[in-house]
Amino acid sequence: MQDWQRSVIYQIYPKSFHSHAGNPTGDLLGVVAKLDYLHWLGVDCLWITPFLRSPQRDNGYDISDYYAIDPSYGTMADCELLIAEAGKRGIKLMLDIVVNHTSIEHEWFQQARSSLDNPYRDFYIWRDQPNNWESKFGGSAWEYEAQTGQYFLHLFDHTQADLNWDNPNVRAEVFKMMRFWRDKGVGGFRLDVINLISKPADFPEDNSDGRRFYTDGPNVHDYLQQMHREVFEGHDLINVGEMSSTSLEHCIRYSRPQSKELSMTFNFHHLKVDYPNLQKWIRADFDFLQLKRILSDWQTGMQAGGGWNALFWCNHDQPRVVSRFGHDGEHRVVSAKMLGTALHFLQGTPFVYQGEELGMTNPSFDHIDQYRDVETLNIHRLQRNAGVSDADNMAAIMQKSRDNGRTPMHWNAEPNAGFSVAEPWISVPANAAQINVASQLDDPDSVLHHYRQLIALRRSEALMSDGVYRQLLPEHLQIWAYVREGNGERLLVLNNFYGTACEVELPEQVISPAMTQRLLISNYPDNPPRTRQVFLRPFESLVLHLTDH
Ligand code: GLC
C-alpha cells in the first residue's frame, strides 16, 4: 500500500479561500495563513485549483502562461513559500494542470492563429468545416477564425482552445512544464479533463454531442504512459486524473500500478443521479438507489481490477453535498456528518473540498446577477433563447450552478465571513454568521470536529484503506449499509439518508452477539450496543468495528 492510499486530500479553490492582501479574490499568502488550520484538520495534501497566469474567463482553467503565477494570486516567491511552509507541516501540494486546452491568450495560440504555416499552427486543432460536436458549456465546439479562414476546436468555452496532443512537440512542451513544477517541489498533479486529450483523427459524428468519440480517446493511455516515463518515474508524486464521462474499464487502466499511468481517478457518474435522462439543467431530486448502485459498482469494480478511486462529494464544479444529498435545514449538522462518514469509509483516497468540513450549504442565489460562472451564464442565455421560462431556468441554476460551491470560505462571523476585508468577487451566503470555522472549532459536536475525526481514523484503521467492500441491503430505499472486511475483522457502516427513523435487519454473519463490537464514529450522542435489528434515527450514521471469534 502506498502512502497516498492512506491519505486524505483537501481541495482549495484559492479565489474563494482567503485573501491575505485584502482583495475581492483570495491569494496564495491567504493559503499560507491558513496552513495551521489545515494541519490541525489533519490532511496530508492540498490540491489547489489553477493559480497560473490566466484571463480568468473560466477562473484559471484557461491558462495563458504555465510558468507564471497569476498576479491576482501573488508571485512565484509566494508559491515557493507556500510549498516550503506546507512541507514543514508534512503537507504536500498538488498542482492543477490544465493541458487539454489553453487560453486563446496563450502565446502558442497567438502564434497559431496568425497564419496557416506558423510553426505553432499544429499545436491546436483546425478544420475547414466544423462537425456537430458540442461544447460542454453549450453551443458548438468549433469557433471560426476569420484571419486564417478555419475553425478551431474548443470542448469548453470558445476562449479555451484544445491542444493537439498528436503533435509530439505539444507533448514535449507539456512534459517539460510539468518537470519544471515537479522540480520546484510540488508533491503531485491533478490533471484536468485528462481523458479528453486524444481525439480520433477523422473527427466522426453521429446524432450525439460527440463525447463518445473523444472520451478516453484512441491514444490516451499511450500519452499518459509517456507522461509517466518523462515526468513521474522515480519521483514520489500523487497524480490524480479528472475523467469526464469515463468508464470503469478505462479507470482501472489509468490507475492500476502496472499500467504506469496515474495514481487514481475522479469520475462523475455518482454525481449525475439528479440529472434526469442525463439532463443537468433541470431541477430534480436525486435517485438514492442509483447513487448506491453506482458507488458500489465502482467500489467492487475498481477493487477487483486493482484500480484506485479518488473519493469525493464536492468540488468547485459541484453544488454543496449537504444541500444535494443531505438536508440543509434542521438536519444540517447531522446529515453533513452522515455524508462525511458514508464517503470516508469507502475504498480510495478521500478529498475534502473547502467548507465541506463545516457543512457549508448552497447559497440560494435567486438572481442571475449573483452568478459569475461562465458555464452558468452561457446556459442561462441558451435556455432563455430556447424558450425555457425564467422560473424553470433559475430553479435549475439554483440547484446545479457551479457557483454553489464557489462562494467564499466561512472563517468567522466577521464581515465577509473573514474571507477578506474587501467586498468579495461573489457574495457570501447569508448563513456564514452561523456556519463558520471559528464557531465550530469551539464546538466538539460540530461537523468540523467530525471531519477531523474521520481524517484521523484513516490513519489508525487499516481496513478503511484495504478492507474489501461489500454492500448490504442494496434495495433498501433509505439506508446505505456496507462493510469493509478482511482477516476476520470488519467495519460495518450504516447510513440513513433520510429524515425519518427506520429499522433494518442485518445478516447474522455481519453482526452477532458472539462478536466484539467497538464504535468508531457516530453522529448521535448516545450509542447503545447494536444487534442485527438496527434502529436508525433521522440521518443517523455509525461505524462499528466488529471482530469474529
Ligand atoms: C474541469 C474543471 C472545470 C473546468 C473544466 C475545463 O472540469 O474542474 O472547472 O471548467 O475542466 O477546464
UniProtKB/TrEMBL annotation:
Superkingdom of the source species: Bacteria
Residue ranges constituting the Glycosyl hydrolase family 13 catalytic domain according to the UniProt record: 11-406
SUPFAM superfamilies linked to this entry: (Trans)glycosidases, Glycosyl hydrolase domain
GO cellular component: cytoplasm
GO molecular function: alpha,alpha-phosphotrehalase activity; alpha-amylase activity
SMART domains, A to Z: Aamy (SM00642)
GO biological processes: trehalose catabolic process
Keyword annotations: Cytoplasm, Glycosidase, Hydrolase
Keyword Hydrolase: yes
Secretion signal, residue range per the UniProt entry: none
EC numbers: 3.2.1.93
Chief location bin: cytoplasm
Family indicated by similarity: Belongs to the glycosyl hydrolase 13 family.
Protein name, UniProt field: Alpha,alpha-phosphotrehalase
